[in-house]
Amino acid sequence: MSILIKPLITEKATALSEKSNRYTFVVDGDANKIQIRKAIEDTFSVVVANVRTMNVDGKARTRYTKTAVVKGRSKGYKKAIVELADGHSIDFYENV
Asked: For 56-95, how does the pLDDT look when each residue is reduced to its tens digit (9 = 90+)?
């Protein structure tokens, strides 16, 4: 089971990383803060100061077809905002 699924790279997440050294990841729904901290420290060789998690609900979707209106939901996910200690950073674009 992989705890880290992917980094979230949005405008808001990029502003957080530049201003306050916080990085955002999509993580496994069953992972707790201790497991997330260990996975980040092992993967990126950094020191984690703080971990905040939240469950993001999926959006309601509606599609209008010829025969009927189809309603559903997109899948939700768990998001972790990881604050690193001073002097540490993560570069997602180093291998590009």
From this structure: 999 999 999 999 999 999 999 999 999 999 999 998 877 6
- Segments making up each domain of the chain, as ranges: 4-84
- The C-alpha atoms of residue 52 and residue 62 are separated, in whole angstroms, by 32
Pick left, alpha or beta for residue 61 (phi over 0 → left; psi -120 to 50 → alpha; otherwise beta).
beta
Specify the length of the chain in residues: 96
Residues 4-84, CATH architecture:
2-Layer Sandwich (3.30)
> pTM, whole model, 2 decimals?
0.86
- 11 vs 1: CA distance, rounded Å: 29
d(CA 20, CA 23): 9
